[in-house]
Specification:
Number of strands: 5
Number of helices: 3
Distance between the termini: 123 Å
Radius of gyration: 45 Å
Low-confidence stretches: none
Order of helices and strands: EEEEEHHH
Largest sheet: 3 strands, antiparallel
Shape: flat
Structural class: alpha+beta
């Protein structure tokens, strides 16, 4: 098959009335410049191409937009008040960021460390409870021993009578 060359020009497609452009896309992504009838989808010949001047596609138009005269108060707000507020806000944010960093170091980090440590201790207890779930609980053992001791002393009292 012959090498293909890509023409970088732009074209408008001209087709006959009652026909449509080919919709099949070739494997290389191109379409054949053919037209088919709208009624029966029969081949109706090639389409005509009109070269487009790129200057037609790019139009530079300058439109003057009438601006209403701004009052002295509006200009004062736009040119003085807004910049001052913007600068003051920027300064406060920078100062606040430094203070927030110090506060986080002094307050938040120690509290977070203690919470993590407490959580770790609770997790260790939980894990040990899971590992020893088949063993009797120490508190239950003590209560059972006290009940057995109490019953044994009742039996001795009954026997002495």
């Amino acid at each position: 098959m012959a090498e293909k060359h890509t023409d970088e020009k732009l074209y408008r497609v001209v087709r006959k009335d009652g026909s449509h452009l080919n919709t099949k896309v070739n494997p290389d992504g191109t379409k054949s410049a053919l037209q088919f009838t709208d009624d029966n989808n029969d081949l109706n010949g090639p389409v005509d191409l009109l070269e487009v001047d790129e200057k037609e596609l790019i139009r530079t138009e300058y439109i003057s937009v009438p601006q209403a005269e701004r009052s002295l108060g509006e200009r004062l707000i736009d040119e003085v008040v807004v910049p001052v507020i913007r600068d003051a806000t920027t300064q406060l944010l920078e100062c606040g960021t430094e203070k927030a960093g110090i506060w986080i170091e002094e307050k938040v980090v120690p509290v977070a460390k203690s919470k993590v440590k407490a959580g770790w201790e609770n997790l260790k207890l939980f894990i040990s409870a899971i590992k020893d779930f088949d063993k009797p609980i120490k508190a239950t053992q003590i209560v059972t021993e006290q009940k057995n001791t109490f019953k044994a002393s009742e039996i001795e009292v009954v026997n002495k009578v």
